[in-house]
Amino acid sequence: MNPRIDALHPYPFEKLRALVSGITPNPDLAPLSLGIGEPQHPPPQVAIDALIAQVGDVAHYPATLGRASLRAAIADWLKQRFALNTIDPDQQVLPVTGTREALFAVVQALVGDDCDIAMPNPFYQIYEGAALMAGATPIYLAADPSNDFKPMGDTGIPDYDRLAMMFICTPGNPSGKVYTSAELQQLIRLAQRHDFILVSDECYSEIYRDQAPAGLLQAAADMGLDDYRNCLAVGSLSKRSNLPGLRSGYMAGDAHLLKRFARYRTYHGCAMPGHHQAASEAAWGDEAHVAENRRLYRIKFDRAYELLADYLDDQPPAAGFYLWPKVPGGDDEGFTRFLLERQNLRVLPGRYLARDVDGSNPGAGHFRAALVSAPDTTETALVRLKTALDEWSARA
């Protein structure tokens, strides 16, 4: 048995199930959940049509590198969206079977044991699991108000000589904070100075409120770094196009790193099925559904800030689809249980998305609520959430 398996922490939703196992939800209310970030808006018909039209391709083995036409479609989208001067679809773009697979596997391919991997705290737990399974040591960089929820790597790194990789998430999960181009360039210079790999998780980049967020490759190109040295960016159709079940995304950037990663994936067996590639190509080529997606999220966030003004920051997050409120009194686990019992509504305690460092957990005292359902369902959930917060606040 691989002993590194034992180092993996239970996933947040496993902890949540244990937390609420003894709770009897209010039987007078239909169950609702704001706990899981699974988009519920309709997927684009153009992608569904392409998927159906190409379903016969299941009779063929797909190539690890994906179809040239899909790589070209992703490259064209990257150039347009992030104003890139150039990106080579054959050397600097790799289709992946969802960003979870890519984020985990790239660590196994590119990082040796007995080194450090830095990540924000709170974080997407795949970063940590990938580090632990590779035999690396996770370094948790607090994402909190002291740095506007955007760790810059200037504090918290014990030894840059040991640092092999740093994960960032922009827009952030769960904060929705966005790194500016100048901040990304600062991180790029840091990565090149100390020769570590900078991986930018940009899964939420298209769910923005007003202004399209900058991306890592965009920041590198603005510096004149068209080779994107030391930089890898990851994006997905799950959030952008409401296609989480398609398991389709990309990794793009440094050609030398991608070549090594592609060799690993040849053995790993993660080639995207041909009909999924066809659907992906269609989705990357259509922006109308993405604009409609943003419109629906804007409606829900506006309503959330009307109903929950007493419990939220002054302004909605710049991007993403999460609320990250503080719990009155600070007991995020207690409030999660109370909310399910009284309102049959699930959220995720913030502490489950972070780790204790020096006795402090930067997620504790918050909860995460995903506004992913249709506007009418979200409205019902928000009304229940306000009722519970008002009652809990009076007791706190």
UniProtKB/TrEMBL annotation:
Short name of any one Pfam family annotated for the protein: Aminotran_1_2
GO MF terms held by the record: pyridoxal phosphate binding; succinyldiaminopimelate transaminase activity
GO biological process: lysine biosynthetic process via diaminopimelate
Cofactor: pyridoxal 5'-phosphate
InterPro entries in alphabetical order: Aminotransferase_I/II_large, DapC_beta/gammaproteobac, LL-DAP_aminotransferase, PyrdxlP-dep_Trfase, PyrdxlP-dep_Trfase_major, PyrdxlP-dep_Trfase_small
Protein name (Swiss-Prot/TrEMBL): Succinyldiaminopimelate transaminase
Enzyme class: transferase
Residue ranges annotated for the Aminotransferase class I/classII large domain, each copy included: 32-364
